[in-house]
Amino acid sequence: MPMGGFGAAAPAAAPAPVEEEEAAPAAQEKTLFTLTLKSFDTAAKPKIIKEIKSMLGLSLVDSKKFVESAPKQMKEGIPKDECEKIIATMKALGGVVVME
User: Fold this and answer.
1) From the centroid of its chain, how far is CA 3?
2) Which contiguous run of DSSP H or E holds residue 90?
3) Per-residue pLDDT tens for 53-64?
4) What is the per-residue pLDDT across 4-39, written as a single tens digit (0 to 9) for each?
5) Taking burial as the number of CB atoms within 10 A of a residue's CB, which of 45, 64, 74, 94 is the most buried?
6) How far is residue 88's CA from residue 97's CA, in Å, rounded to a whole number?
7) Beta carbons of 34 and 72 less than 8 angstroms apart
8) pTM over 0.90
9) Mind giving me the DSSP string for 5-67?
């Protein structure tokens, strides 16, 4: 009987490390985010276009098309601290940017 008790304890302990290993990659994925321009104030449109132009390196015409096609993905694979700076800048200008 001691062997049966020992055998039952081993399989019960094995699933716990698997769950911890699955949780670790999920935490790693959250270090990089995607920024999406959701909307903007129409009065602030020229400022938003200028900021998008400098941020993404687009031409003025492409920046205007980008802003007018909102909601649109701005950048992906961005660290959280940089995302927060961009969101604060766009919010100050009148834009709504979402970090996903």
Assistant:
1) 51
2) helix 80-93
3) 999 999 999 999
4) 555 555 555 555 555 555 555 554 557 899 999 999
5) 74
6) 9
7) no
8) no
9) HHHHHHHHHSHHHHHHHHHHHHHHHTTEEEEEEEEE-GGGHHHHHHHHHHHHT--HHHHHHHH
